[in-house]
Amino acid sequence: MRAPNKTAFWERVKTLLKARKIPQNELAVLIGLKYSTLKFWICYGYSPDIDTACDIAELLGVTVEYLVRGIEAKRGKRPAAK
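The structure corresponding to this sequence follows.
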């Protein structure tokens, strides 16, 4: 049996959690998941839906693009309202 494939997304999340001293079970509570669900996603490399990814990014103080791609998004100006 092969080891589960861990995605870069979850590796970045785990690194940020460790740096901020936030346990995974606390993250689960803060984003409204059962801890067992979060552990399953991490273990098997499942990607969260966009709303959950946004919640995780916000809690960790990074962008979703950073979690997904490993780079910070360029912060451009919003288009002016017409």
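Residues 10 and 42 are 6 Å apart (CA to CA).
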